[in-house]
Structure of C2H2-type domain-containing protein:
Amino acid sequence: MHQVIDTGERPLSCGDCGKSFTRSGNLKTHKLIHTGERPFSCGDCGKSFTTSGSLKTHKLIHSGERPFSCGDCGKSFTTSGSLKTHKLIHSGERPFSCDECGKSFTHSGSLKTHQLIHSGERPFSCDECGKETVQLWRLWKVFYAVWKLKNTPTNPQWRETVQLWRLWKVFYHVWKLKNTQTHPQWIYYKHRVTTSHVYPH
């Protein structure tokens, strides 16, 4: 198996999508994506995962433990990947560059969002007014602009809108840490914020 890793050969392929792997265990875990199976569940909240490692990382949320600390500023994280990304702030490194204009970013998600500017794609839109944006938070700004015009305590929507604003703050915090369109929380908050935008119309 070590020789396979050295040569870069990936002899094991997924029958559903064709993705290849060097280890049978990795292929087995990958197949859970297609089956939707999540065999590892959290005893505290019931959330389930495809790998034991993902469950272990999730449990740190409940314990409050952050085992990975930055040697420069002392800020701590639950995963080594988050720490690695954080360290780019101190080093000034921006490893993800745009092929079109050369602008660079610390996160791959930021690069992906930036590339929408060049492609002209606007993936977020309001079902009510048709306004389209590159970023989800820009759609929220449209909602907030309308809300300010109607922001009076006598308006029955006022209390509900305040609650939605608090929801947005939670969403934005998650988005900053986990800017990926495949993350379950991201998809959940995208739905909540996108649908909340229709209230002021």
About this structure: Strands lie at 12-13, 20-21, 40-41, 48-49, 68-69, 76-77, 96-97, 104-105, 124-125, 132-133. Residues 171 and 189 are 6 Å apart (CA to CA). The radius of gyration is 21 Å. The helical segments are 2-7, 24-35, 52-63, 80-91, 108-119, 136-149, 157-177, 184-196.
